[in-house]
Amino acid sequence: MKRAIRNLSGLRVRKEKSDGKTTRRDDAKLLAASHASARELVVEVLARMELHRRDARHVRYDPSTGKLPLAWLKETFEAVNNGRLAEFTLPKRIEVVVPETLLKGTDLTTRLIDTKGIDRTAARADLEVHLQDPHSLAILCSGFNNAPGAEARLLLSRARDAGIRNLGLKAAIVALPRPRKRSQ
After folding, report:
1. Per-domain boundaries in the chain
2. Which of 58, 59, 115, 143 is 20 to 30 A distant from 94 in Cα terms?
3. Which pLDDT tens digit goes with each residue over 43-89?
């Protein structure tokens, strides 16, 4: 979320070189130091985001980009989720249409829905509705070190308690790999 807010508001951490030394300049810290109150700072950050201009809710793949559909999809989702597309805010739902077959060997229409995660609470109707849909498969992702995450377990427990059948066929938990450490 921090990265998205920085990107939406243009408050970046910049590396600057001077006399052979690299220093970091944090635009957010500089802005915070120039405001007397937290309220004034929040108003300034929101103004910089220009939310009134960020009203897009869907985007379609265009072959003229020269990118393969799945590569475009990955880049687009990453840009939206990190607040790097000027026409998007961080809406609850974004529809991305890729007019290509995503699952080989099938003529099924596939819809992928990114729910922005379940970081805070798993008691969310927008997620539970997908577990009730007989045509949906819910993929719940957890970090490698805490898989299966408490949020995913709670969501599945709530679904079981609500009487949703065939959870073993309708939901899966994926443990995301640990990021590689960069050599310095």
Report:
1. 1-49, 115-184
2. 143
3. 999 999 998 898 888 888 888 999 988 888 888 888 888 888 889 88
